[in-house]
Amino acid sequence: MAKIKNETLDPRLEKVGQKIKDLRIKKGYTSYEQFAFDNNLPRSGYGDHENGKNMTLASLIRLLDIHEISLNDFFKSFK
Fold it and tell me: Could you count the other beta carbons within 10 Å of the beta carbon of residue 35?
């Protein structure tokens, strides 16, 4: 599991981060940095999001808007 300042990251956050990464890759981006640049996102902040860190609801909604996916659709596969 990923670590945040000596704390174990919640596996649910890791899953959210992985799904965000999967959406980027599905759009054809192999580089998270290029995706962030092309979508006017802070590079390091976006990298944290893919790792399940530093995620706010506002940032998640912004990313889902970029991918044109609803919150409902994003979380459908989560159990």
Answer: 22
